[in-house]
Amino acid sequence: MRLRGEPAQGRKTRLNQERFPSGTPMLEGFFPSVLLYGGKSKFLLTEIRAFYLLFVEFCCTKKMPKSSGLVTTTGGECRMNKQERVLAAVQGKPVDYVPYTMWYHFGTQFVPGDKAAEVVVAFYERFDLDFAKVMNDYAYPLPKGMDRIRNIDDWKRLEPVKPTEGGFAEQLKLLSVVAKRLKGEAFFVDTIFDPFYVAQRTAKNLVFDLLRSHPEDFKIGLEVITESLVEYVKAVLDLGGAGIFLAVNGASTDVLSKEEFAQFVKPYDLRVLDAVKDQGVLNITHIHGEHIMFEEILDYPVHALSWEQNYVPPSLSDARKLTEKCFLGGIDERLPNFTPPDALEAQVESALQETNGEKFILAPGCSVPPDMPAEQIDIIRNAVRKPR
Questions:
Q1: Are residues 141 and 290 in the same domain?
Q2: 282 is in which domain, residue-wise?
C-alpha cells in the first residue's frame, strides 16, 4: 500500500527496493554495464528496478519451460502451431485461434544485447505469445566528440552506421539469441523506428527547426540514417527475422503537415520497406500518435497495420473498408491496472466481433505500460483462445 503523502512513483521505487535490494544477484546479472558506474548510476538503477517491478517478479525469477510451439489453451483443440497461425491470419485464411502478442519498452538499451535477449525470451515464454515483437531502443550514435545535435552543421556531420557497429550490433546480438531460442517455434519481428523517428530521437525537438529552416540540409542527415537502416534491416532478416515493425511517428498532423510528411517521411520509409518487402513474411507498419494520416500509409508494402484504434480513427471496421491488410490491435493499452476481468474479456470479444476474427492479430494499440499486471495479460490471452 502507498504511504500517506507518498507519490505513486515513489511507491513503485520503494516497493522495488524492498523486493530487490542492492546487490541482488539477478539484477547484477541483468545490468552489469549500469552497475559499473557505481554511485553515478544510483538514480538510473533505481529507475530500471522500478521499470521492471512486475516483469522481473513474474518472468525473470522463474524457470520457464520451452514451448512446443502449440498454444496453451483454456479448452478445445489446438490445430495449428504459432507460425502457421500467424501466417494464416495475415493471409486471411481460417485460424484455430486469433493470434495475439504484447510488448513493453523494457529499458534494455542500457545492457548488452545478449543480456537483453533473455528479457525478450522470458517475456515471450511467460505470456505464451504467438510471435515476439522485439523492442529496439538503442540510440543512433553521434559522431565522435559530439554529445548532442545543436545546429544544422552538427546534423550534417551524422555518419552512416554499419550493422556491426554501435546499437545496431547490440540489437543484432539480441536477435541472434532470440532467433536460436524461437527457431521453428514462433516468428519474431524487430522494431524499427523509421528515419524521421530516428532523426527526432537524435535531434530531439530541434528536428522541427532543422527541417523547416534548412530543408535540403536536413535531408542530408535523413539520407545517412536511411542508408544505415536499409543495411540494418537486411541484416535482421538474414538473422531469421520474419520482418520488421516500422514505427512511423511523422504520419500525424500533430507532428507534421501532410506536405512535410510527403517530403520528409514517406520517401525514406518506403526505401526501408523496399529492402525487406520480398524477404519478409510479417512486415508491419505502426502509425504512432493521434490525428494520423491513415490513408497516406495504405500503399506501404507491408502485411499488417497497427495504430491506437481505441482512441484514434479509423475504427477497425472503418479501416476494413479502406484496405485488405491485416490489422494488429483491439487491446486498449491505456486501460488502468487491475481492470476487472469481465471488462478485459469484453474488449477482446468486441475486437473479434468487429473484425470477424479475419485478417486480425490481437495486440495493444501501442506498447503497454511495464507495470501492467501480468494477470491482465493472462486474462486477455485466455479470452482470445477461448473455444468459440
A1: yes
A2: 68-384
Let me know whether 4 and 123 are in one domain: no
pLDDT tens digits along 16-69: 344 333 333 333 333 333 322 233 333 344 344 444 444 444 444 444 444 434
Distance CA 326, CA 304 (A): 4
Q: What are the residues facing 134 on neighbouring strands?
A: 190
pLDDT at 9: 41
In a domain, 57, yes or no: no
Q: Which residues pair with 361 in a beta bridge?
A: 328
Please check whether residue 56 lies inside any domain of the structure.
no
pLDDT at residue 98, as a whole number: 98
pLDDT digits 0-9 by tens, 143-161 = 999 999 999 999 999 999 9
Please give the C-alpha separations between residue 356 and each of 89, 93, 119, 322, 373, in angstroms, as whole numbers.
Answer: 12, 12, 34, 16, 28
CA distances from 317 to 247, 254, 290, 321 (A): 22, 24, 18, 7
In a domain, 59, yes or no: no
Band of pLDDT at residue 77, cut at 50, 70 and 90? low
| Domain annotation covers residue 60 | no
Looking at residue 78, what is its pLDDT? 65
Give how many domains the chain has, as a whole number.
2
Q: DSSP characters for 231-264?
A: HHHHHHHHTT--EEEEEE-SSBTTT--HHHHHHH
Locate 335 and state its grid cell: 486501460
Q: How far apart are CA 154 and CA 352, in angstroms?
A: 49
Q: Are residues 219 and 306 in the same domain?
A: yes
Packing angle, helices 166-182 and 215-238, rounded to 10: 30
Structure-block grid coordinates of residue 57: 517478479
Type and span of the H or E element at 328: strand 326-331
Work out the average pLDDT over 186-205: 98
pTM of the model: 0.82
Burial 327-359 (b: 16+ CB within 10 A, else e): bbbbbbbebeeeeeeeebbebbeebbebbebeb
Integer angstrom CA distances of residue 312 from 55, 134, 250, 287, 289: 28, 24, 15, 10, 8
